[in-house]
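PROTEIN FOLDING TASK:
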Amino acid sequence: MIAYVQGTLKRIEENSAVVEAYGIGYRIFTPVREDLLRVGLDNPVLFYTYFSVREDAMQLFGFLKQEELDLFKLLINVKGVGPKFALGILTSLSISDILFAIAQGDHKALTKAPGVGNKTAQQIILDLKDKVAAPTSGSDTLSIGETQTAGAAGAMSAAADAIEALEALGYSHNEASEAIRHVAGWETLASEGRLSELIRESLKMLAL
């Protein structure tokens, strides 16, 4: 119904912002993060929006990036994940973190978001694993709505093996996952089965 709201940022609250457009102040529920704070009050802003209508409320959810809105729409179609819940996930985790976790089947990473337990995290992965693809190294660009190829699925499996190996060396799950994500060309190493090389490069990242 409302594709976007463009106007002047007038107020930033705990989990929402107020945008004035043509004399009307729109309260938009949105992730309050550094990118929003950088906009600054009384400056122009554009939110890509989703209008939620329920029996007890009509609410407008908005995001500074179209990709975030696309991911939000996927999340709210997962059983047990409503708009406020999805907003919390997108506030706590970056786009790339969410997509990487889904593509890799890493439910532990998703439980970093407040209120997301193992059951919900596993449901998100089950419902969305064939609808998104992990971002490439050094990029937050999304591939939403794309089914993973066999090669991509193999790369995710190899990445999971590398994480398990790093955990056996004493690193935490999060440390191992982050290190692999920051290895240049990790997708190629994983898809080609060069697991020892991927682990070696990840250890270099962990030593930085």
Summary: Residues 6 and 71 are 21 Å apart (CA to CA). DSSP finds ten helices and seven strands in the chain. The chain has a mean pLDDT of 84.
